[in-house]
Design brief:
This protein is an alpha+beta fold. It has a domain of 75 residues: GTP cyclohydrolase I feedback regulatory protein GFRP (Gtp Cyclohydrolase I Feedback Regulatory Protein, Chain: K), CATH 3.30.1410.10. Helices cover 35% and strands 32% of the residues. The protein is built from 3 helices and 5 strands; from the N terminus they run αβββααββ. The longest helix is centred in the N-terminal third of the chain and has 22 residues. It is rod-shaped and about 90 Å long.
């Protein structure tokens, strides 16, 4: 009788531990993202190239008119802020002195 009781208690304990482990298993979420690259030419911002998810391409030429001097990068920064207000998140920025590259993404 004692062996049978030990067997039942052990079995129930193992089942409780396994169910507790399964209950707290983290859920795997796979989020799909759209990606955007913005490349601005520092010399005059005459061209700002925008590529969205490999499907859409824009060439913004109006930013050069918004500049107030050779080192004014506010137009392209404002463009990035505009996209951020639309749900895009800036993940990376790189500059080699001639080109400024912004990489943004947002969940689909």
């Amino acid at each position: 009788m004692k062996n049978k009781l030990t067997y039942i208690v052990s079995t129930v304990s193992v089942l409780l531990v396994l169910s507790a482990l399964y209950a707290f298993k983290p859920t795997e979420t796979t989020t799909s993202y759209q990606h955007m690259t913005i490349i601005g030419w520092k010399e005059d911002l005459h061209h700002v190239f925008i590529s969205i998810d490999g499907k859409e391409y824009k060439d913004r030429k109006d930013l050069a008119r918004e500049r107030k001097g050779n080192w004014d990068m506010n137009p392209i920064i404002n463009l990035v802020h505009q996209y951020e207000s639309e749900g895009w998140e800036m993940k990376s920025f790189n500059s080699d002195g001639m080109y400024h590259t912004f990489w943004l993404r947002r969940a689909r």
